[in-house]
Design brief:
38% of the residues lie in helices and 16% in strands. It has 436 residues and is of the alpha/beta class. The chain folds into 2 domains: 3-71 and 327-432, Aspartate Aminotransferase, domain 1 (Alpha-Beta Complex); 73-324, Aspartate Aminotransferase, domain 2, CATH 3.40.640.10. A hairpin with a 2-residue loop joins strand 15 and strand 16 (363-367). Helix 11 (329-351) runs parallel beside helix 14. The protein binds pyridoxal-5'-phosphate. Residues 63, 118-120, 123, 146-148, 208, 212-213, 241, 243-244, 273, 283 line the site of pyridoxal-5'-phosphate (PLP). Pathway: Porphyrin-containing compound metabolism; protoporphyrin-IX biosynthesis; 5-aminolevulinate from L-glutamyl-tRNA(Glu): step 2/2. It is found in: Cytoplasm. It is an enzyme of class 5 (isomerase).
């Protein structure tokens, strides 16, 4: 493809004239890997086609929501029917109840939930509720976990444990993040020290239990168990941000994975997004009735949204949730994801490339590191230039993974065994470009 006929480049140039960086969300710009972003023309099943008409096997799936692949017939039909009935009413609908019922049915920790339009909004509102319910201001988050771009969450660790965080974005006043304590993921001693010092002031601990925003890092079972104990002991709420993992790693999300290993385990609040909207702007946060009833209009914690519970988004989410609740859905998805991860690992080994990988349900991650990292600073030891080379070698072979080494990957039920085989073959060739 010569430069003059590359529609992706043409569109990128046009976009950059009008949209900052040419994109409406930064990671899409390919800045971590270089090159021109692919502008998507259309998508179907496990594939999308770019503006040049080139086909890719898609392992991003809109960053997680497309668990059934693109344009699943049942979902498409539900959305088309909903569109005919009206785009938005700003008044309650039966479908919001149905969606809430479908979510609550699978998550024992969620007795009530509130629907919103993005994961950012859901996490921000969950934190406001945690603060409102406990009457405390301080919160704990972990380095490498992302909870959307609300001001109080755009924060990095201070110089020591006793100090609170610093903003990671211009435009966030230091005063806004002064209540956010940023700790190292999987560090039990640090968490214990934080509770010993600030326990009585902590409203909540928010965590990605299987962190997909530092590629794929699991909270260890002892760490999660201790986090649960400390929150209970000190009256802080344990907030599971399952925007990415909810209905993605299994029907009961990451909390279901930990409940299998820690008897009786439940978080106090759950933040959801991505899969529950099936690709439409829909997210939620939920928890026990007594807590959720502190929200307006019943309680003193204000939260609202013009498009919340949108009728087209709820139709899309509901149809998606009904499909993934079919018996055997997650078993098949997990098997496929495992085959992919094992295939990539074998290909890297044969090429002599340092590599480690993990997966759960339809979510996976890999590192150009010999061992799986346990926290953000270990993730950052990954070889970024080598990742950039691998990314482009895969892209050139029709495989589209996240254009940054700190992002997880997603397999959908539309990915066939042949897609996985072709991907592993492409990776075999791509790893050769990294071999010494
Ligand atoms: N929380 C987690 C764990 C996420 O992965 C994301 C987005 O990737 C968010 C929150 C923010 O969601 P949204 O991009 O819908 O605002």
């Amino acid at each position: 493809m010569t430069q003059s006929t590359d529609r992706n480049s043409e569109l990128f140039e046009r976009a950059r004239a009008l949209i900052p960086g040419g994109v409406n969300s930064p990671v899409r710009a390919f800045r971590a890997v270089g090159g021109t972003p692919r502008f998507v023309q259309r998508a179907e099943g496990a594939y999308f086609w770019d503006a040049n008409g080139t086909k890719y096997i898609d392992y991003i799936g809109s960053w997680g929501p497309m668990i059934l692949g693109h344009g699943h017939p049942r979902v498409l039909e539900a959305v088309q029917r909903a569109v005919q009935e009206g785009f938005s009413f700003g008044a309650p609908t039966e479908r919001e109840i149905e969606l809430a019922e479908e979510v609550a049915k699978h998550l024992p920790s969620v007795e009530m939930l509130r629907l919103v339009s993005s994961g950012t909004e859901a996490a921000m509102s969950a934190i406001r509720l945690a603060r409102g319910a406990t009457g405390r201001n301080r919160i704990v988050k972990f380095e490498g976990c992302y909870h959307g771009h609300a001001d109080s969450l755009l924060v990095k660790a201070g110089s020591g444990l006793a100090t609170f965080g610093h903003p990671t974005s211009a435009g966030v006043p230091a005063e806004v993040v002064q209540h956010t304590l940023v700790l190292e993921y999987n560090n039990i001693a640090q968490l214990e020290e934080a509770f010993a010092t600030h326990g009585g002031d902590l409203a909540c601990v928010i965590i990605e239990a299987i962190a997909g925003n530092m590629n794929f890092v699991r909270a260890s079972v002892p760490f999660m168990k201790r986090a649960r104990e400390l929150c209970t002991q000190h009256g802080a709420l344990l907030v599971f941000d399952e925007v990415m993992t909810g209905f993605r790693v299994g029907l009961r999300g990451a909390q279901g994975v930990y409940a299998q290993q820690i008897p009786g385990f439940v978080p106090d609040m759950t933040v959801l997004g991505k899969v529950i909207g099936g690709g439409m702007p829909l997210a939620a946060f939920g928890g026990p009735r007594a807590l959720m009833e502190k929200l307006a209009p019943l309680g003193p914690v204000y939260q609202a949204g013009t498009l919340s519970g949108n009728p087209v988004a709820t139709a899309c989410g509901l149809a998606t949730l009904q499909e993934i609740a079919q018996p055997g859905f997650y078993e098949a998805l997990a098997r496929k994801t495992r085959t992919l991860v094992d295939g990539l690992s074998a290909a890297a080994k044969d090429a002599g490339v340092p590599f480690s990988a993990d997966c759960e349900g339809g979510m996976f991650g890999f590192f150009l590191l010999p061992q799986l990292p346990q926290n953000y600073s270990q993730v950052m030891k990954s070889d970024a230039p080598a990742f950039g080379k691998l990314f482009h070698a895969l892209l050139d072979r029709g495989v589209y993974i996240a254009p940054a080494l700190y992002e997880a990957g997603f397999v959908s039920s539309a990915h066939g065994d042949e897609d996985i085989r072709l991907t592993v073959q492409a990776a075999r060739d791509a790893f050769q470009t990294l071999s010494p």
